[in-house]
Specification:
This protein is an alpha/beta fold. It has 9 helices and 14 strands. It folds into 2 domains: 119 residues, Rossmann fold (3-Layer(aba) Sandwich); 148 residues, Dihydrodipicolinate Reductase, domain 2, CATH 3.30.360. The structure holds NADP nicotinamide-adenine-dinucleotide phosphate.
Length: 325
């Protein structure tokens, strides 16, 4: 792929996030939203009209047979990510799959093996990693700044309207707070602290059998700690805070799409604003484009090894809170 060629995207699952993603995608000059697939013909037509898409399908496999498609964005409920990513890779397409990329470690290992065998790009859609505010935090850490990180605190809690049939609450669709939003604080801990030596988790469960809230503590071999929280039944500030020996850095809430970083170093408070372009997906899309242009099989900023660590940790947490899908 050369830099003056447009990249043809296809989207699978035309729900809430697909619309938000598509409205950013169509603003990227190098991207062409080429095709969409929905279970519903009417929805596919409606979405195509809204985003000027020329090809729409009700059968995923039929869409994937189109040789013009370069990459598929998968934005269906969690439980479908594995089979749909697998199908896309089998048809020779690169894949950007929404979080969580799979429901367990085994599924992710299968996807990684296939992507490697077929030399195809594969990435989990953890868009926060590419935000300017997040990049700034990384820069700040590379200078002496806050010193050694002793504690990472992060929460992602929001109050959703209880509806047992909604994918957020429905166990058959992979519902629960851990898999939906707990994954963000978990990724923060992996990005800043690595792999913990001890995992402790507890949860409050819902009548649908999924976790309403989950509280997690990770301990690391260097003595540092992460305290993480997720919920779909109550709101919290939804921040990410790094507390070091010489100061603190805060990715202000909502941290997953943060526009502000606050630092307290040497008793000096500094606030930096990073206005998001569009809905904030442009940065992730640009990263994917750069990887495709350079024929990389994975992003260096969000390698699949990190997704594997996240899946391993979530598997351990699910064992501790007695949650299985
Ligand atoms: N990055 C982010 O900030 C972010 C934010 C929200 C969600 N997400 C992720 O994106 C994924 C989708 O979330 P969403 O909030 O967009 O969900 P949603 O509104 O429920 O949309 C999911 C879409 O998947 C399709 N689908 C295919 N088979 C389905 C089935 N059996 N049951 C229900 N839907 C089915 C449906 O589209 P059709 O009717 O067109 O087939 C549905 O509209 C989730 O995995 C979530 O974790 C990411």
């Amino acid at each position: 792929m050369t830099s003056n060629q447009k990249i043809n995207w296809a989207i699978v699952g035309l729900g809430r996030i697909a619309r938000i993603f598509a409205s950013d995608l169509i603003k990227v000059p190098q991207a062409n939203l080429y095709a969409v697939a929905s279970r519903s013909f009417e929805k596919a037509i409606h979405f195509s009209k809204a985003f000027d898409v020329n090809h729409h399908f009700t059968q995923y496999e039929e869409m994937l047979q189109d040789p013009n498609i370069d990459i598929v964005y998968i934005s269906s409920p969690h439980v479908l990510h594995f089979e749909q990513s697998l199908l896309a890779l089998q048809h020779g397409k690169a894949v950007l799959c929404e979080k969580p990329i799979t429901m367990d470690v085994n599924q992710l290992e299968i996807l990684i093996d296939l992507a490697k065998k077929k030399n195809l790009f594969l990435m989990e859609g953890l868009w926060t990693r590419f935000l300017p505010s997040f990049e700034y935090i990384l820069d700040k850490l590379s200078s002496p700044g806050i010193g050694k990180i002793n504690l990472l605190k992060s929460d992602f809690c929001f109050k959703a309207t209880y509806n047992p049939a909604d994918r957020l609450f429905d166990k058959k669709l992979g519902g629960g707070s851990l898999m939906d939003v707990g994954i963000y604080p978990i990724f923060m801990s992996i990005l800043f602290l690595g792999i913990p030596v001890k995992v402790s988790a507890s949860s409050i469960m819902l009548p649908t059998g999924v976790d309403a809230s989950c509280t997690i503590s990770f301990e690391y071999s260097d003595g540092s700690q992460a305290i993480l929280e997720s919920s779909i039944v109550y709101d919290t500030p939804t921040e990410m805070m790094l507390i070091g020996s010489d100061g603190r850095l805060v990715l202000n809430g909502p941290f997953y799409k943060s526009e502000k970083v606050t630092s307290y170093i040497d008793y000096q408070l500094e606030e930096k604003i990073f206005p998001l372009e569009g809905n904030g997906f442009l940065y992730e899309i640009n990263e994917v484009h750069q990887c495709l242009e350079q024929q990389l099989m994975e992003s260096q900023k969000l390698p699949l090894s990190l997704s594997l660590i996240a899946q391993n940790l979530m598997q351990e947490i699910r064992t501790q809170i007695n949650l299985s899908y």
